[in-house]
């Protein structure tokens, strides 16, 4: 190929030489030979240069084209990964548990984000190997969610899926009434107690939706009393100064078939100083110990032989500067109805109190048991005497303080009779 253009050029110049020879003899001939040689060399060099350059570019272009074409084909080829989201896009009345799941076929999930319409993120976990993702907790009811999921195939190409769905609107709901109050300072015996407005038949789901955290950290476990009450406590009394935070993430929890929680609330409280008082029904005295030190010994009267006081660990759950005590409300008929009992603090749901007593003679306290099951301390009518033992005890006690009764000729108080779960061993509590 390269030889033909040079030969063609020489033939052309040969014709020119012939014309030159006919017109001017040797001079024309000589010029024709010289021109032919030089021009032929120049043209040949140019043609070689053009051919070399052209060939090089073509080769280079061919290579780049092959590489570029191949790279472009990989880059533009759709990912083989297929992302599937359940429930389907636009679904309504979706169950709050068990319905949401993201999967990847021919690839691995790399990111999944689920948010409600307020921007709150649903925590979840991608399974080992990246084949699926599921939420770590239930969803809220009557809420719209957005799902964004990304997966990669074996070549690293991404595939994404975006969907929305709305959870069901429950017809029947429940909430939990809790104690202690948010922001309160309580005694070392105060449990977290939640009473539900509907009987719970799915206790595991409900308990998992309640989180109790402490600072400093201490293990806290829940225990069910029946199907409508759940209490939380540590193994031993709280340490003074502990800060406790409770999160009720009940919104959307199916506590029983067709009945869903509608509560999402947090509250916190602080454990104050430690105060544990021990009332000895045999010696008719009560010793008050604060932060490990005995600070006062008080004469008392406990339950009479026919109406003895429960033994056991009891927690002050309510305080009344003055209250009415009617025997008819606790099974004693019309035996008593005192409208102005001073300095009363509740120890049980069934009616056990530690309170002021102005109607018994002063010599009774410290020497005899005459009450209908309460722990009585000397007081005056109206509770005006701040130096009276009952007034002192009332003013130096807070909700959550512990009162232990011992040596009474009665049984131990039931753990669910008041906030008195401390009467169960840790093994029983966590069973």
From TrEMBL:
The keyword Acyltransferase applies. Pfam families: Big_10, YkuD. InterPro entries: Big_10, LD-transpeptidase, LD_TPept_cat_dom, Transpep_catalytic_dom. The active site is at 355 (proton donor/acceptor), 374 (nucleophile). Transmembrane segments: none annotated. It comes from the Bacteria. CDD domains: LDT_IgD_like_2, YkuD_like. Pathway: Cell wall biogenesis; peptidoglycan biosynthesis. Keywords: Acyltransferase, Cell shape, Cell wall biogenesis/degradation, Peptidoglycan synthesis, Transferase. Residues 275-406 form the L,D-TPase catalytic domain. The keyword Acyltransferase applies. This is L,D-transpeptidase family protein. It comes from Streptomyces formicae. The lineage of its organism: Bacteria, Bacillati, Actinomycetota, Actinomycetes, Kitasatosporales.
């Amino acid at each position: 190929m390269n030889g033909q253009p040079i030969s063609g050029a020489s033939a052309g110049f040969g014709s020119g030489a012939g014309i030159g020879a006919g017109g001017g003899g040797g001079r024309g001939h000589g010029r024709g030979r010289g021109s032919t040689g030089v021009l032929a060399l120049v043209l040949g060099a140019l043609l070689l240069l053009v051919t070399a350059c052209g060939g090089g570019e073509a080769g280079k272009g061919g290579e780049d084209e092959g590489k570029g074409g191949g790279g472009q084909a990989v880059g533009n080829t759709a990912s083989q990964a297929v992302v599937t989201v359940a429930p389907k896009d636009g679904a309504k009345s979706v169950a709050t548990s068990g319905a949401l799941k993201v999967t990847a076929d021919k690839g691995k999930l790399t990111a999944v984000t689920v948010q409600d319409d307020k921007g709150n993120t649903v925590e979840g976990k991608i399974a080992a190997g990246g084949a699926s993702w599921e939420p770590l907790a239930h969803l809220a009811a009557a809420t719209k969610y957005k799902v964004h999921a990304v997966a990669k195939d074996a070549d690293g190409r991404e595939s994404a899926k975006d969907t929305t769905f709305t959870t069901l609107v429950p017809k029947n709901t429940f909430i939990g009434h809790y104690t202690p109050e948010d922001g309160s300072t309580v005694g070392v015996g105060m449990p977290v107690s939640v009473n539900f407005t509907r009987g719970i038949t799915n206790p595991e789901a409900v308990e998992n939706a309640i989180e109790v955290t402490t600072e400093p950290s201490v293990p806290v476990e829940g225990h069910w009393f029946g199907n409508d009450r759940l209490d939380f406590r540590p193994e031993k009394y709280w340490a003074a100064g502990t800060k406790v935070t409770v999160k009720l993430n009940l919104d959307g929890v199916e506590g029983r078939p067709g009945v869903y929680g509608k509560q999402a609330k947090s509250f916190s409280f602080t454990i104050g100083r430690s105060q544990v008082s021990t009332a000895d029904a045999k010696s008719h005295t009560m010793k008050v110990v604060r932060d490990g030190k005995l600070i006062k010994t008080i004469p008392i009267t406990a339950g009479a032989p026919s109406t003895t006081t429960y033994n056991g660990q009891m927690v002050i759950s309510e305080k009344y500067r003055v209250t009415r005590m009617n025997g008819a409300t606790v099974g004693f008929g019309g035996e008593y109805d005192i409208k102005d009992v001073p300095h009363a603090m509740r120890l049980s749901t069934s009616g056990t109190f530690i309170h002021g007593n102005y109607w018994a003679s002063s010599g009774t306290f410290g020497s005899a048991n005459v009450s209908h099951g309460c722990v009585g301390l000397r007081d005056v009518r109206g509770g005006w005497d701040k130096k009276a033992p009952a007034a002192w005890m009332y003013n130096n006690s807070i909700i959550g303080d512990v009162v232990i009764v011992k040596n009474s000729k009665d049984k131990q108080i039931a753990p669910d009779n008041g906030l008195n779960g401390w009467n169960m061993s840790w093994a029983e509590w966590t069973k």
